[in-house]
Amino acid sequence: MTTTSTREYVDVTEAAKLMRAALRDAFPAVKFSVRCERYSMGQSIAVHWTDGPSPKQVELVGDQYQGGRFDGMVDLAYSVDHWLSPDGKRAILAHSPGTNGSHPPEYGERPGLDWRRVHFSVSSVHCSRTITNYETAIKAAELIIRRWYGMAPDEIRIGGAGWGEFVQDVASSMVHHRRDGETLEEVLERRQNRSDWP
Length: 198
What we know:
Elements: E1 2-3, E2 8-10, H1 12-26, E3 33-39, E4 42-50, H2 55-62, E5 68-71, E6 76-79, E7 81-84, E8 91-96, E9 106-107, E10 116-120, E11 122-130, H3 134-148, H4 161-177, H5 184-193
Parallel strand pairs: 2-10, 4-11
Antiparallel strand pairs: 1-2, 3-4, 5-6, 7-8, 7-10, 8-9
Helix pairs in contact: 3-4, 4-5
């Protein structure tokens, strides 16, 4: 960590350590692989795990340690600062300069005197999950979808192959976005209601 008069710079190795601790705290039953990646234009962290939480749940933890943002509307990368908790397990936005005409600047109040202002050198965080018994989970999801729509397991509705593709797409989406401890029925209900999806 390098300190300036206003903030500390946290390199990718230190950010990865902080992220590991935060992930262990958030999901104690899951083993995560957290790897640093360095390349000519920046640094990133790759997070991988098996089963357990959804990618979105892990991203919510991992993105706290990301100092880079990208605005696709204006094709511009920019940096943000965070407030880092004393134990390093939480980081909240301190300042984002925003981008011209797309994202306005943002400022976050310091939560306490012991929180430090930092800039993480990590430009991006990539999350990927392996799902055991993936094919079995897909088949179970397809049956749940057909039941939801009042169909027999082999029934083909008007539209033929198109309906089958719809069922497969929704089943795949359900399995990929399933949260830790969530049943497939709960995933489908959340998807249908668009409540907090994905």
